[in-house]
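WARN retry 2 of 3 for item q-0093 after timeout on previous attempt; input resubmitted unchanged.
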Amino acid sequence: MSDDRRILLLRGVNVGANRKLPMADLRALLAGLGLEQVSTHIQSGNAVFRDPACRPDLGPGIAQAIAADFPVAPEALIFDPPAFAAILAANPFDEDTAQIGFLARPAAIDAARLNRLTQGDEAWHASEAALYLHLPHGVGRSKLAAGAEKAMGAPLTMRNPRVCRAILTLAEEL
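OK item q-0093 returned
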């Protein structure tokens, strides 16, 4: 029997007045799609659940269901726990200064642009699945963080490693 545990990361929810998606509503929506043992972590669109049908197209289906019911149409990135753990383990930077940009699809990296955006002691590293940022002065005023998605040429959603670890723990406990 295959493992039906999944991790959902939504891109761009609860980041502005018009992009609100209460996590209780997200849990209800996911359960309504036939997903089981749904749990969310913080208010930024992180969820774990079981998908007994093991649907390969689950991300677009979730995104469409959200867009039909809420004023937001986020990218819905789906991972199984081993893939998510591998992305987290590949982070080359200190957990206290890192951000991980999970990619929605393969990227056409503009390394020159990323290098131009990098200020002071910031740094970046890209893999097939993620963009890792070293932001010792935080994400808020970083030009690298602000311009990363355009430089990657693919949608991405940022999480810090501590949040990722908490999400992974929730998924492993399902």
